[in-house]
Amino acid sequence: MNTGIKKIKQMKYLYLIAAFFMVFFASCGSKGTVTEEHDHEHEGVKLKITEYTSHFELFAEADPFVTGETSVILAHFTNLSDFKPLEGAKVNAKLITGDKVSEQTIEKPIKPGIFEFSLKPGKNGQASLLFTIEKEGVNYELVVENLVVYNDENTALHIAEKKVVENPQAINFTKEQSWKVDFRTEWAKKQVFGKVIKTTAQVLPEQNKEFIITAKAPGIVFFEKTLLEGQQVGAGEILLQLVSKDLMESNAGIRYQEVKNNYNLAKETYNRNVALVQNNIVSEKELQRSKAEYENCKALYDNLNKNFNAAGQFVINEADGYLDRVFVENGQYVEAGAPIVKISNNNTLLVKAEVKQKYYSLLKNIYSATIKSTVNNKVYDLNDLQGEVLSYAKNIADYNSYLIPVNFRIKNNGAFLPGSFVDMYIKTKSDNLNILVPNSSIIEEQGNYFVFVQVTPELFEKRQVQIADTDGIMTAISSGVSEGDRIVSKGGIIVKLAAVSNSLDPHAGHVH
User: Fold this and answer.
1) Which residues have C-beta within 8 Å of that of residue 99, sequence separation ≥ 6?
2) Which residues pair with 101 in a beta bridge?
3) Could you tell me if 392 and 434 are in contact, meaning their C-beta atoms sit under 8 angstroms apart?
4) What DSSP state is assigned to residue 235?
5) Tell me: the pLDDT tens digits for 250-281?
6) Are 219 and 245 in contact (CB under 8 A)?
7) pLDDT digits (tens, 9 = 90+) for 155-198
8) How many whole angstroms separate alpha carbon 141 and alpha carbon 156?
9) Residue 426: which of 394, 470, 462, 463 has the closest Cα?
10) Residues 6+ apart with CB under 8 A from 9
11) Contact, 354 vs 404, CB < 8 A?
12) I need a surface site. Which of 47, 299, 321, 350 has the fewest CB within 10 A?
């Protein structure tokens, strides 16, 4: 028994000794690791460079600049016209420090939009980086100021490390990812933004752009071709005929033939008198009388001849447009003055909105509006539709509705259907300045609103905002975004999804 206890004690001592050495070697190892980390703690530190022109966005990752040491610059160029990578271009980079210049020209990117440069500063001090982009025979310049070239690498790395943006909540969304999707960023700007009146409006044809062709004489409808609503018709085109030759009364064909006979008789009489007056067989007075008779008969005949023949009336279109309605059927009898067809020309349209009485004092300050199409669900500014504000009522037109009509005219771009109802945002003048962001930048989550603010072109912060008002295209923000913030104006939902993807994949990031 004592022997067993003794062995257990010996084993405990052995375990204690082993544990001691394990801790010792671990501590030695950890000291060695710390040293290794100390030796390489700045390894991988990059300068993040962002610059914009009217044409391009530059986002570059560069080794800190040290005199006599080569710095690798990985430059991402984005076309601001479509936020896609720069392609088909040659780029020259110059690192300028005083009178020393290090430059390199890259004919072809390593990947679309990504150009890799290796520049060696020849002098320490304040520096600038000049990129010259040659595309399709045109040169564009992009300048990055306020760079510094240091004497020693340790100083350069320490300062670069201090400039590293620390934002644990920010979402990593690389340029390569953004180039593959419908994505865009833009500056949040402070602009004048007045009260917006949201209402419903009806799209209507203009009164002078539609007309009804009526029967000029009674007759039976005879379609010479198929007439369909929506069919395009030209001015002077014969649409149908009203046949009256078999009618016992009100026979337009008989009337036409009578006028034609009278015209022919008056013409012959006048021509004969012209010849006889030279021989003094008829008097000058008789000649003038026959001339007047001839001209009267000719005018009546010419008028009937345009629209009638021996069978009846031709129904002729008077202006270019389309058939809005056909009121008659083949074989139907119609009286004179009966509507035959309705022709419309919807090159321009009226938009009639109705607003509540509480907005009456604002109506004199209306200067524009935005309209949401029910055809394609897009929102159009009045200026884009070459539109104008026509009028607003000075009293209540319909005493049962208690609403005030407001009228606009727009050019029909094919996105608006006459007779349909649309959402409308009527904009009024104001001197108030507001931070404006596109509606497409706002993401709603359970009644709260957010935008993604750019930290760098590859790092985005989700920020809650308070909404003041909207015109259907732009939204006024009362808090959460400041002037000069660059926000994701399109593709915010994709950035949101990237946050989930990056949290699942710890290695998510650049793939060059």
Assistant:
1) 123
2) 96
3) no
4) T
5) 555 566 667 778 878 878 887 877 777 777 77
6) no
7) 999 988 888 877 778 999 999 999 999 999 999 999 999 999 99
8) 27
9) 470
10) none
11) yes
12) 299
